[in-house]
Amino acid sequence: MSLDKIIILISSVGLIGFIYWFFLSRRPDDSPMVTTAAISVSGGYSPSVTKVPVGQPVTLTFTRTDPNPCLEELIIPDLKIKKDLPLNTPLALTLTLTRPGVYPFHCGMNMYHGKIIAV
Ligand SMILES: [Cu+2]
């Protein structure tokens, strides 16, 4: 095997290793369980994952500071929630999730995503 092939082989193995590490080392489920969360809406949702207990009222407060009209609408399809997020005006949503699971939410154009994990 020539030297350049060995270099390509080593760098491919390294790249694959890096890809595995990059994706598998991210554990969004490690987030702490909360009953209130402040989610800032600016170029996405931060935090993008909120873990909440099942069967307890939880309050998520969304505050949009990004003038991008794309983020104006907040949609949680599984809960049939569709809300407007006026700029710089916190919107508090109080929910009681009765079933464990992942409840994704997204902006009006389905470009930015977040999720609520009920456990
Ligand atoms: Cu959007």
UniProtKB/TrEMBL annotation:
The keyword Endoplasmic reticulum does not apply. The keyword Amino-acid biosynthesis does not apply. The chain crosses the membrane at residues 6-24. Keywords: Membrane, Transmembrane, Transmembrane helix. Residues 16-118 form the EfeO-type cupredoxin-like domain. It comes from the Bacteria. This is EfeO-type cupredoxin-like domain-containing protein. It comes from Candidatus Amesbacteria bacterium GW2011_GWA2_47_11.
